[in-house]
Specification:
The structure holds 2 protein chains of 2 kinds. Helices cover 61% and strands 0% of the residues of chain A. By secondary structure, chain A is mostly helical. Chain A has 2 domains: 79 residues, RNA polymerase sigma factor, region 2, helix turn helix motif (Rna Polymerase Sigma Factor, Chain: A, Orthogonal Bundle), CATH 1.10.1740.10; 81 residues, Orthogonal Bundle (Arc Repressor Mutant, subunit A). By secondary structure, chain B is α+β, with helices and mostly antiparallel strands. Chain B folds into 2 domains: 53 residues; 176 residues, MucB/RseB, C-terminal domain (Phosphorylase Kinase, domain 1, 2-Layer Sandwich). Chain B is built from 10 helices and 7 strands. The chains are: A mainly alpha, B alpha+beta. At the A-B interface, helix 1, helix 2, helix 3, helix 4 and helix 6 of A face helix 2, helix 4, helix 5, helix 7 and strand 2 of B.
Chain lengths: 168, 244
């Protein structure tokens, strides 16, 4: 295998699982998610020679992925299903099994909130990295994360998830 | 530091991004505030639950990895220096059909490469895709992209019939991909509404095995790709340009 392709496998393609996982959650459609991920890697391949050794390759790939996703959203002339729910929404479930499942809860989040939750909590990016990936101020990332967590916990009857009442 | 200020910093606290002064202030506050301790514990527990739930969902990357590797391989192949299609130019000159102010042979741009790659993977390598084959459904798909459904019948020269269609992503932008065929083979037409009007010239590009024509009419961008011949793509592009 040529060196450049081998390098690309080692540096970029090893992140395909993370990218596909987020793309599926953003699009709610496996076929679109695969198209976006494929497009992401083809664009990344084209710019791979410009990637500096000190660049966070994973964050770079996610930035390309998000641009591809937003391009799709613009094409559709609408953002994916948006149901703005606030923490004040009253949702009560007798136990976790009957609570809204995590999938539907995530899908019901505003797309901006879902995005930061996936990048920050699931993929482990810092707020500063998310700010770079999405090209938004870090304060915006923080407020979106807080609102996303609040909404999800409300939907999932979050107190039931807590095993320790007070860590002190 | 107030509860409100501490809670605003929770996202940075959970990712370890607080500076030392902020971290100290938050820690001091938590020592004396059971309510904030509770909130922080609940947020940490929620994060862990969400992480485990999403990470445990089944995810098969084998298919998409194969597509990516095939795409990279093909793109790598296509990134060789472009080759002037001497035969195509000669034939065009002999036939006298090239108006040089309107028909130009150019280097492939990223859109050309992406279109040729898409055509190659889907119509030569026959990678499976969710195609629409019903004409009414295809016309509906075109209408949703802001395109006149009547264009679908008007684009091809005589002798071609519509085979299938779908939406595809080329160079970060979405196109309606229409596939027509005649006895000699398939022709891909990629169409999208453009943000701004561009040059109406028909640009001809020859890659290794794909022949391509790109042009714009008003606010419509079109890319035509085929493996047949430079003459075939030119003939098709002229018909499509006239229809647009």
């Amino acid at each position: 295998m040529p060196t450049r392709e081998a390098d690309f496998e080692r540096v970029a393609l090893c992140h395909s699982r993370s990218l596909l996982r987020v793309a599926r959650r953003l699009t709610s459609d496996s076929s679109s998610a695969e198209d976006i991920v494929q497009q992401t890697f083809l664009l990344a391949w084209r710019g791979f020679h410009q990637l500096r050794p000190d660049t966070n390759a994973r964050a770079w790939l996610f930035r390309i992925l998000m641009n591809a996703f937003y391009a799709e959203a613009r094409r559709m002339r609408r953002l994916p299903a948006v149901i703005e729910l606030t923490a004040e929404v009253t949702v009560s479930f007798p136990d976790l099994d009957q609570a809204m499942d995590i999938s539907r809860a995530l899908d019901s989040l505003h797309i901006d909130h879902r995005t930061v939750l996936l990048l920050g909590v699931v993929e482990g990016f810092t707020c500063a990295e998310i700010s770079e990936i999405l090209s938004v101020p870090i304060g915006t990332v923080m407020s979106r994360l807080s609102r996303a967590r609040r909404t999800m916990r409300t939907l999932l009857a979050a107190p039931l998830l807590l095993t320790s009442k007070d860590p002190s | 530091m107030t509860c409100h200020e501490v809670l605003a910093l929770v996202p940075l606290h959970l990712t370890g991004e607080l500076d030392s002064a902020q971290a100290t202030a938050v820690a001091e506050h938590l020592k004396t505030c059971p309510s904030c301790r509770q909130e922080l514990a609940e947020q940490s527990a929620f994060d862990e639950f969400l992480r485990r739930s999403v990470a445990s969902e089944p995810l098969d990357t084998a298919a998409v990895d194969r597509r990516i590797r095939a795409g990279i391989h093909a793109q790598h192949h296509h990134q060789k220096p472009w080759i002037i299609a001497c035969a195509g130019i000669a034939a065009a000159l002999v036939l006298g059909i090239v108006a040089w102010n309107e028909m130009q042979l150019v280097k492939p741009d990223p859109l050309d490469t992406a279109a040729a790659l898409d055509h190659h993977l889907e119509l030569v390598a026959h990678q499976p895709r969710p195609w629409l084959t019903d004409r009414a459904a295809i016309e509906n798909l075109a209408a949703r992209q802001g395109l006149q459904p009547s264009l679908i019948s008007a684009l091809p020269p005589s002798g071609y019939h519509l085979v299938q269609s779908k939406i595809c992503l080329l160079d970060g932008r979405w196109f309606l991909h229409l596939v027509y065929a005649n006895a000699a083979g398939d022709v891909s037409v990629f169409l999208r509404r453009s943000d701004a009007p561009g040059s109406p010239d028909i640009h001809l590009v020859n890659l290794d095995t794909e022949h391509l024509a790109r042009f714009q009419r008003g606010r419509l961008t079109a890319v035509v790709v085929t493996n047949q011949s430079a003459e075939a793509v030119q003939h098709f592009a002229e018909s499509a340009a006239a229809a647009l």
